[in-house]
Amino acid sequence: MVRYILLLLFIGLSWGQKEYKIRPKYEHLRLINKWTFDSMETITYKEEEESEIVVKDDDNSETLSFHKSGSISYVTLNNGEMKKGRGIWLVKDNLLKILADSDTIYATYQIKGDFLTVTTSKDESEEFFGYKTIMKYKK
Fold first, then answer.
1. DSSP 15-79
2. Sequence-separated (6 or more) residues with CB below 8 Å from residue 39
3. What's the pTM value of the predicted model, to 2 decimals?
4. What is the pLDDT of residues 35-91, one digit of tens each?
5. CA distance 33 to 25
6. pLDDT band at residue 114, thresholds of 50, 70 and 90?
7. What is the rounded average pLDDT for all residues in the chain?
8. Where does residue 47 rank: exposed (0-12), middle (13-18), buried (19+ CB within 10 A)?
9. Which of 19, 20, 31, 123 is at a distance of 20 to 30 A from 62, taking alpha carbons?
């Protein structure tokens, strides 16, 4: 009888665990890796919405490395011109903040499988149209 109850308890616990997913406490730690540029789409909000897509090729590539220490390093090749640099990164309330050189980037991010999507946007001002940039990187 005790064996039967233990067997039912074991089956119940095993089956019940499939309904619950354990999520890591610090989801942003999944950023820590080396990410290679895949594509970038820039949507400009003019009178008519315009979209421009850039994909990785021999003249356009980028590698981002998020380090556990909170530093970030990058190597960019844009139209044949290489640029390297370092900065710092942090995440607060699912918003990614990157400080590199004299730039500060505020973005949202999403990691699905081996892909990192970083999205930045800017509202329209008196001087500039609003835009949204969606960058995709592969692990």
1. HHHTT-----S-GGGGG-EEEEEEEEEEEEESSS-EEEEEE--SSEEEEEEE-TTSEEEEEEEET
2. 53, 54, 55, 56, 135, 136
3. 0.76
4. 999 999 999 888 888 889 888 888 889 999 999 999 999 999 888 889 999 999 999
5. 18
6. very high
7. 84
8. exposed
9. 123
